[in-house]
User: What shape does this take?
Amino acid sequence: MDKMNEPILEVKNLRVSFKTYNGKVQAVRGVDFHLNKGETLAIVGESGSGKSVTTKAILGILSKNAIIEEGEILYQGKDLTKFKEKDFYDIRGKEISLIFQDPLSALNPIMKIGKQITEALILKEKMSKQEAKKRALELMKTVGIPQPEVRFNQYPFQFSGGMRQRIVIAIALASNAKIMICDEPTTALDVTIQAKILDEIKEIKEKNDLSVIFITHDLGVVANMADRICVMYAGKIVEVGTSEEIFYSPAHPYTWALLSSMPDLETKDELFSIPGTPPNMIFPPKGDAFAERNQYALEVDFEQEPPFFKLSDTHYAATWLLHPNAPKVEMPDILKNRIARLRREEAESIG
Assistant: This one.
């Protein structure tokens, strides 16, 4: 079997809810996906779509009011949904690591950076202090921290946002994990730093043969690094495909909307924004959850949830527009024009 087609993690029919005073929030509603060895899988969607909740369920770090109602999370043949807190000790950080969105909250403000990296190595890898320091300095160099020997003894407040994020990546790499989960790791950073961090993650992933789950609300961020993309809306995956399929042949109106709302410096088109707001997940809507905001919605969308329709062996979308009896609807012109231009530019660069 080709390594890239060999799953290292499988999530099956995952349902996660949160008990609140107002009722039960159905945050994740029957999510299925797999992560192959050595691949980068992006999970994309607006805030509140269930992306981060899904990854927190994988690591067993859901809040106390969360309930895993149903489903399996299979890692090396073990179902992580059945794990108790002590069972995660050898998995969390050691086998599956996490890069948080906000490095300030991930780092201890009163502990020197070096100690925060070596702590993971001493605890998880059973290294001596000297070995741990040597490895920590190597990791700091790997993630592009200049003068690691000096920086080793500094505190988080002495680092810029981009440098703090690099430290968080170094900590995530400290245990030679097999899977790295990046939860919006570049959101708070400016565009230049963002690009550098993304290149860093890509390079480290290839060098260490990591499998990566990349969580983001911005499709543009994963354009050059994801092998496959899952598009999530209202606690469900609504489209999944290779990066090329999602960017060049998107099929779900929500994916169209996400792609259309990406800024494009090449055109003078007015920036598209998705109308309305995501649904209240205490009372998820009947039918297709995106119907209320979807200008292409059919009557059936308000009554019945669409199944996945197969477009290729790797590309599926849950929209009634793909039903053989559905009226023919084309993607928005703004998106059609952008894809045509990208194809032209690609052809020119090859030619």
Notes: The longest helix spans residues 191-208. The two ends are 34 Å apart (CA to CA).
